[in-house]
Amino acid sequence: LGLALYASSLCAVSGAAFLYHDYCVIGAGPSGLQAAYFLQQAGRDYVVFERSHAPGSFFALYPRHRKLISINKRYTGKSNSEFNLRHDWNSLLSHDRRLLFRRYSRDFFPDADAMVRYLEDFASLLKLQVQYNTAIIHVTLERDRQAWNGHYFLLTDQDRQNYKCSSLLVATGTWVPNVVNFPGSEYVEGYETVSINPEDFAGQTVLILGRGNSAFETAENILGVTNFIHMVSRSRVRLSWATHYVGDLRAINNGLLDTYQLKSLDGLLEGDLEDLAIIKDKKGKLHITLRFYLENRNTSAGIDSVTLPQDELDNFATRAPYDRVIRCLGWKFDFSIYNRSLRMMPGKGNKKKYPQIKPSYESRSTRGLFVLGTASHSVDFRKSAGGFIHGFRYTTRAVHRLLENRHHGVPWPSTVYPITQLTNSIIKRVNEASGLYQMFSILADIILLRENATAFEYLEEYPVGVLAELETQTGRKAPNGLFVVIMEYGRNFSGADKDVFYYNRAVGEAQHAWQSNFLHPIIYYYKRLPTEREMRLRPPDWPLPRPDAIHHIVEDFLTDWTAPNAHILPLRRFLENCLSTDLRNFFAESCFLFAFTRQKLPPFCRQGYVRMQGLVGSEGLRRHAVEAGLLEDYAPTDFSGDRPPDSREGSQDQLLRDHAIPVRPLQHLVNAKDE
Known about the structure:
Layout: H1 2-15, E1 18-26, H2 30-41, E2 46-49, H3 57-61, H4 81-84, H5 112-125, E3 130-131, E4 136-143, E5 151-157, E6 162-170, E7 176-177, E8 189-190, E9 205-209, H6 213-222, E10 228-233, H7 240-243, H8 255-261, E11 267-270, E12 276-280, E13 286-290, H9 309-312, E14 324-327, E15 331-332, E16 369-371, H10 389-408, E17 414-418, H11 422-432, H12 434-438, E18 443-449, E19 455-463, H13 470-474, E20 482-488, E21 520-526, H14 532-536, E22 549-552, H15 564-579, H16 588-597, H17 603-609, H18 619-627, H19 652-658, H20 666-670
Parallel strand pairs: 1-2, 1-6, 2-3, 6-16, 8-14, 9-10, 9-14, 10-11
Antiparallel strand pairs: 4-5, 5-6, 7-15, 12-13, 17-19, 18-19, 18-20, 20-21, 21-22
Helix pairs in contact: 2-10
């Protein structure tokens, strides 16, 4: 019967009319809307399918107790909008300043209802093409050599309407609850349906299965009304401040750790949930036992006929009966709607709740199928922020740029600068770039050197996992070497068992920068683009292969890497050593002297002074130089007429006549200060 129904469905699909779009996006959550924004800005043909009547339906239900753990830092002391996104974990990227999350909530940890309103406004104000009340129930392939990727994606919704797309972007997130089946699991309540009224738990004894934020969030809600709460999970508790992973337990939810360690009845236990069994007695109490005690026994025979662990070990930890058992085990990706032709396979180990994808966020098995948002977290699981809004808003933009180059011939955005701006460009980015800061170890700025290192091309926030494919993926060439600018924590600083508050945990001196523990910029230098083999064989926990040279900018307590001696000078000298050139800036007098005393001028003089470029002289600039001790205080020339001395009107010759500077001795030029 199943085969017959499947065959009939295929026949129906093949005979039905298809609505075509270049891009189909499944899911109008944060990542789906973010992808839609970039597609719309580029003028592409796309549609977003959303099963609910409004965007962000996940946030209409979760978190159950309605407090988000993504921070909403409204004040930073800075007016730089890019910098402020480093501490805004909820806003999506757009050109509309009205669509900043701080305008929707004043709370540091906002209410989930504010996120629902925000996503509704994001979709409506930007007029994104979202088709609501459309649940995609089946996705398959149609081979066609004329298609972008050698095939089309065929989608069917709940009303049997069919759609055809050249590229498929999956932004459904992970929304299927994780369920562990064991004897007696029918007595377990799910996080998705359990009561959120604390009074329903008054005077009860509760066991919670799970050890993540949803488990602790549930415990926090009922902590003050229960007899006691026990929490069981396979792994030990992992605190986000120790692991530096925002998906681990956050401080806002960890009240139960206090009551556990201060011996106020609550407690944590470790054990494999699949080894458990639950037996319900005549009074409705739930008793915890182990599965092997129930082998060859009928669990419905009654509590008296079943051996419990406390019968053999009278101080068994969970010997007290429970009134309720609650499952809080998180969610997983929904693989059910994808036909086997797409080969959407789950990951391995602790990544099995996510589909297998490449570091480019494209499916490992199907070209043209990209996974966005939380479901793409396998790329950086437990490493960075790619499973959360403040991370995947940048990875979604990266995917869009890859698609623009692949399908429309639009190269990755870049800017070309003279080599003298190299130090400044890096310092500017590490001090304000939010994508590098949030997606540390995953996204990096790429600096492509031009021939003879006279200029460079700057590419922002490229996925380092596909560095070997840079020329193909971006449409940019790297024949003369490159720098990679990335942010990282110290190698041995993060971990569930690490003490991150030990004395002397921070490094403050530039010569010890390589020992920095906290998030800090690292610059890798390669004389040529790394190969795919080198990427595969890179050292464990390294985001990149071993470089020809590497430089750590020492960590900074204020995350402000602008100190002239600690940050800028060591960086400049590293760059100079790599390029065998002088990247300093010079006054015109120094360039004039170098022209007579050196065979080769520094780049700044060649690109500025020799080409008659640089700052236009003015009385204000001259006075500043005099006060700084960089120039002697020559008597000012009288100016006639109404034009002020620092006016830029008139010809350059007139300016030179008005601001004549006497000839200075050669010895004074030798002693002139360089900037």
